[in-house]
Amino acid sequence: MMRIVSLLPALLLFAFMSTQASALSWRTSCEVDPGAIRRSGSSYVFSTSKNHCTGGIFKQRAELTSNDFSVSRKATYVFSTSVAMTAKSREPFIVFQIHDGRNGCSPPLSLRWQGNGSLSFDSDYTKGKGMAGCVENRSLRNVRYRGPSLKRNGTAYLLKVAMTFDGQGAFDVAVSVDGKPVLSGKYAPPSDAQFVRSKRFFLKHGVYSKNIWPYEMTSQGLRVSR
């Protein structure tokens, strides 16, 4: 009995560490129009919604957001899901983000699904002055996509985003589609003191676009692993 009792603290610590290493949790970002996000287990269906968040110029948003994690945490996360878009429109949209809570400017990283079926990175530095304080991060924006043309006819694609955070505000990111690398790059925090450095990170997933247009996107088997 004494032996079992003496092991309890170690077992509790192991349980705590296992919980810490588990996937990030998800919730709806701001609010959405009724029925715009439907869930069944680890699968979600996104459809057109007005943007209920404040700030920015994008009018349509049906997104999930994860819990925050510290910028000072060294960690590797792998976001994965089987995603299928059904739409007649070729409107570009953001399907995934690494955000820090800023308003106006693009976050440290957005993954944009373009109208021509390619993917691209958006990334800005911010002076904390809304749209007037945005400076494009060309090192990520100029990365070339090397992958298949993504169709909007309900075809499912396995999307993975691997992220390695260095604990100093920088991270490496690599995107694959159906197991093939298509985009990769690195975000480094601004060295100039006029720019605001990130104090937290969180992930976002869904459909975020400048204009409102009809669509339905399924995301099956959504998970974030470490």
From TrEMBL:
Domain of life: Bacteria
Keywords: Signal
Signal sequence coordinates: 1-23
Protein name per its UniProtKB record: Polysaccharide lyase family 7 protein
Protein species of origin: Roseibium suaedae
